[in-house]
């Protein structure tokens, strides 16, 4: 082994020790959450820093799943699933539609409305949420999904912007060729643009899923009946220290709610990294 | 003839254009513009009911007077929010840049590290993590247990007015994954020739960082700094779950205080006034971004 190779090896070992240790430090809380959820209930705060349960126990999961007030987590997961899937489909589809309009069709007022849309990216939700609440409450739409879903028919500015970047990369000749063959704008959108921006739509769908799954403020305001709680809302009530001290069960339900998030992360990591790096999208 | 065809096309495009952006336009008018106008109106009203607008009473600038001169909690919430933003965001970006530079190598295992460092970011905003964080920093929690192992004194972090906000800052810094990926993408675009030339001229690592990396990356850094400060001003969930604004209102963030006034005290007018002040602060930040945005963001599609 030459001196150069040896130096290379030493530097590599130092690098991995340093970065690896820091990496472990960063994900330790998450590992701790998952391992605590598998510890026997009494053990969670006894040997706190340990990641290895004395015996594997799933009692926390069965205890936690029972929920509270006679409502189990099956209900909460079903609610979250319905809300999230509808929200994702609506958001992604309409974002694509609007993005096509902005990037491929010349119409009066286009620049103005585009500027309006970009501005909404930075609008604090607090400015609109109070009147929205009053409006939906007067429509007697509290404890329904309308207030959570209806505002999404406009798509989401982040995704519209991302799709526009993507559509710009599609040669205009494709549109023109289709037009000559007698295809209208609607046809072009469905037959040419939509199939070609599928990768971007996957990215948007993942982010949309994350943001909806973890959405808290809107469900908190609009859904007051525990029967309608999403998983996030349920976790908050479930983990209320004055009502529940079964930390094993609380950890189990918290950990479980992160499982879908991690599964998607593991399988679609490439799309996420791409989405963030190309648009500066905050995940 | 030709011009009439063009005119017809133009008209048709107008129809089609508004057809495609229609959903957005509708949502924008109904769920953004109209509520904004209503909120502005409420800001000048004493409005504490949900049922009917008749109950609103015009009181001019009284909400703002009360906010600026007669509400200690308001200033506490402004102070807490600024403190949080000023520490959390620069720390997060520093961490992100440091890690991005460490990961910007061709070594084995880098993609694993990248995924692991990004993991906290995808779950960081969730209720599950907020609930966990409360236990990490609880009296018997992970953090105290760890520092006890190191022989350091433990504390009740969440109950201590000097430290509670730092648990929230720590949570924000922990989520450095997204800016790390953005910086990593930026670093990859810097030509390696620059560094090679600098090496030949005898520049060391620090010198290369200051003279090459930082200037070339500064637009991205600045853009992220401002954008994340803006979203930092609106932080709600973590404070709501982890500290609830306690102790002594040291973590009563602006958005949390608005929520309390609006949805716990039902003072919709007062809360709206607070929201509009936030909007103006954010508008100032946003103007800074847009005045200088040409240098780093390519927004509008340039078409012939």
Structural class of chain A: mainly alpha
Helix content of chain A: over 70%
Could you tell me the mean pLDDT of chain B? Answer: 86
- CATH topology (level 3) name of chain B: MetI-like fold
Task: Please mark out the parts of chain A with pLDDT under 50 across 5 or more consecutive residues, or reply none.
Answer: none
Largest sheet of chain B: 2 strands, antiparallel
| Multimeric state | heterodimer
Low-confidence regions of chain B: 297-304
Question: Would you report the number of β strands of chain B?
Answer: 2
| CATH third-tier fold name of the largest domain in chain A | MetI-like fold
Gyration radius over CA of chain B: 25 Å
Biggest sheet strand order of chain B reads 1-2
CATH homology superfamily name of chain B: MetI-like
**Strand proportion of chain B:** under 5%
What percent of residues of chain B adopt helix (DSSP H or I)? over 70%
Structural overview:
The complex is a heterodimer of chains A (283) and B (304). Chain A has 283 residues and is mostly helical. Chain A folds into 2 domains: 3-57, no CATH class; 69-279, MetI-like (MetI-like fold, Orthogonal Bundle). Chain A has helices at 3-37, 59-65, 73-104, 110-120, 125-138, 146-149, 157-168, 172-180, 185-196, 198-213, 217-222, 231-238, 247-279. The longest helix of chain A has 35 residues, at 3-37. The radius of gyration of chain A is 24 Å and the shape is flat. The two termini of chain A are 45 Å apart. Chain B has 304 residues and is an all-alpha fold. Chain B has a single domain, classed as MetI-like fold (Orthogonal Bundle), CATH 1.10.3720. Chain B has 13 helices and 2 strands. Chain B has helices spanning 2-43, 62-69, 72-103, 110-123, 127-136, 142-149, 164-174, 177-188, 192-200, 205-233, 237-243, 254-264, 268-291; strands spanning 45-46, 57-58. Chain B has a two-stranded antiparallel ribbon. In chain B, helix 3 (72-103) packs antiparallel against helix 10. The radius of gyration of chain B is 25 Å and the shape is globular. The chains are: A mainly alpha (283), B mainly alpha (304). The interface between A and B is large, with 99 and 100 residues.
